[in-house]
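Researcher: I'm preparing a figure for a lab meeting and need a structural model of a single chain. I don't have an experimental structure, so a prediction will have to do for now. The sequence is pasted below. Please return the structure as tokens so I can convert it later.
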Amino acid sequence: MTIKPFKLERFYTIHEFTAEYLLCSSDCESMSVRDVLSLENGALEKFQDLWLGYTETKGNPFLREDISSLYNTITPNDLLVCTGAQEPIFLFSQAILKPEDEVIVQFPCYQSVQSIPESIGCKVLDWTVRYENKKFVFNINDLKKLVSNKTKVIYLNTPHNPTGFHFSKREQLEIIEIARKNNIIIFCDEVYRELEHKSEYTIPAFADIYENGVSLGVMSKAYGLPGLRIGWIATKSQKIIENIEILKEYTTICNSGPSEFLAGIGLRNRKSILERNLKIVEKNIALLDHFFIKYSDLFSWDKPNSGPIGFVKINFDEDDMVFSERVIKKKNILLLPGEIYDYKGFFRVGFGRKNMPETLEKFEEFIIENLIK
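Model: Understood. Here is the structure written out token by token.
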């Protein structure tokens, strides 16, 4: 099996922990262990007494109970807890796909949903976003044209990274209808679920409303707890769960007990965590909206209605990677160039962290000093 180098993770490996300012973070404001333990009375004592033995491959039953509360019809038995989001993406693809299968990927995308099927010998077809009238659009008719009798899986991501695009309920049902007619599995990355900016933008999890739907969740993004490395697969298909679980016994075997304990606290208290994160997002997105209106001759952005990220179009004649490298060199600010996604002419911004206003001020200094004539 040969897998291409992961461009995004390679880029972050080089820059994430050396850049002083991050304007492209995909996660929300994080918390300390002390912060998490303070959310529940008696949690510190329980944490200190936690047994550091092996845990269940499928995930702690109490944690699976907590995760199931995120869904309407998913039970603890319909869940498999994994290490972060990357492990379930890898294991799902390995468990379900075989050479010559066709998969459709919402593009641009998190590279592993392309590279892993390709390494298996699958044909990967891109359902490419359209940029029309300064708006990102995934045209349903474009998806229909990609479907064939060989299509095994449609990989989705909503809210979408990096564009911020989020399917409406109508679009979601149209996609499910296409998949159901052709007996296609839908694997949807829903790591920003529950971070909709208004309640009317909320849509059901694909695992809740489609019998062949697989929903991916993680503690990293909406909840801002990536250090726990806890993610999960949710699906009503026991065959899918069992096949992935068998492969998990060849990878991580089980999850970290302390991480599962802390993840449970986070999920049981997620309303307060989400309320905090949504306030940060609301404040920051207003600043970005004003900023990109002010500099509309230089940049265009499609204001997202969900999640903590957006994709910004560069309106001047400069390569996005070269531009990003200039910003790092001159102001030590990290942007994520569109070239990382093989979608040139854009860069990703993140607005889920408290220090974004300060970072945006530094970015404006760069613009005034280098782009304003």
